[in-house]
Amino acid sequence: MAGGRAGVADLCGPRLLSANAALSPADLKAALDGEARALGFDCIGVTAPDVLADAGKHFRDFLDAGAHGDMGWLAAHPERRTDPRALWADVRSIVMLGVNYGPDEDPLGVLEQRTSGAISVYAQGDDYHDLIKKRLKALARWLVASSGCEVKVFVDTAAVMEKPLAQAAGLGWQGKHTNLVSRQFGSWLFLGAIFTTLDLPRDETEPDHCGSCRACLDICPTSAFPAPYKLDARRCISYLTIENKGPIPHEFRKAIGNRIYGCDDCLAVCPWNKFAQEGHEAKLAARDELRAPSLAELARLGDASFRARFTKSPVKRIGRDRFVRNVLIAIGNSNDPGLAEAAERLLNDQSPLVRGAAVWALSQLLEREEFEGRATRALSIEPDQTVRAEWSRV
What we know:
Elements: H1 25-38, E1 43-47, H2 53-64, H3 72-75, H4 78-82, H5 84-87, E2 93-100, E3 118-119, H6 128-147, E4 151-154, H7 162-168, E5 173-174, E6 180-181, E7 189-196, H8 215-219, H9 237-243, H10 250-256, E8 259-261, H11 265-268, H12 273-276, H13 295-298, H14 303-309, H15 319-332, H16 340-344, H17 352-365, H18 368-379, H19 385-393
Parallel strand pairs: 3-8
Antiparallel strand pairs: 1-2, 2-7, 4-7, 5-6
């Protein structure tokens, strides 16, 4: 049902209200709140579809600056992002929902384990799209059956500006790192949206509580924030390791460290996170094997073993080659010559992307003279120009 209308005929459930009960909008909203929390949502708020004027301007400025990089899907149909009514003309209210995924340990601790990989907190368990979508669909079915309305459901897969809508609905505010911050859950909220034809009472917009704090800006390893509340995605490690399909630019490779999928630095240092850890259990079921996996082990993944290891994980979406590229950058940053063997095995990989990253890893781990000797031999047989360029850099 994501992006589509929910049917009414086959909807049923133990807590349904009668569509003929003629509840007041306020009472229906209160019942919706209770049902949402019963389904596992941690916060809920309602806003109007016409609240994105300022956010829309910031988004267009972001696109005009080219700060979205190669994410062409962001630039497609910007009018749909800046005005939900362009996405669905019948929408009257937008219900925003959040699920706490606060970690049960310091996400920055793994950065000191240089022979292990750091995977972003949100990707250490099952894909959040599936987790949230299932709950949203259940709540949407309840709302349709209880009121006779029409709905559309979105979970980060359509042209919806979830974060400014969530702020307008009172769930939190967009911090200086451009992510949503909650007074109850810090920077750790998955978001989902239900568009409905109902006119529900609106919640008040959450004001900005960042004050003079700039911890999230100062910790960024690649200086991806040109100013508070502005992100240049082209410099963001999450973009570089996930969205970027080609070689990682040389200027960012050392700064990436051992981050092999995403980056939590700006989220993890937010002082509001302390409230996410007081009285709230972590809602993300992290897999132990993804908390600090061995780089040497990950470097051995082929296509089949990669898919098997990351089944149901968002990591699977970037594919084996991009992931192993990231692993090799981390190996190059490990300062462990013992990992040179893992990189060397990948010099003959079928993927030029992987071979190029393996060359860089070896350039960081081998003595210069040894690397230059290998480069001379490799250049006589390497057909790909991007890989040849890696051999020729040192």
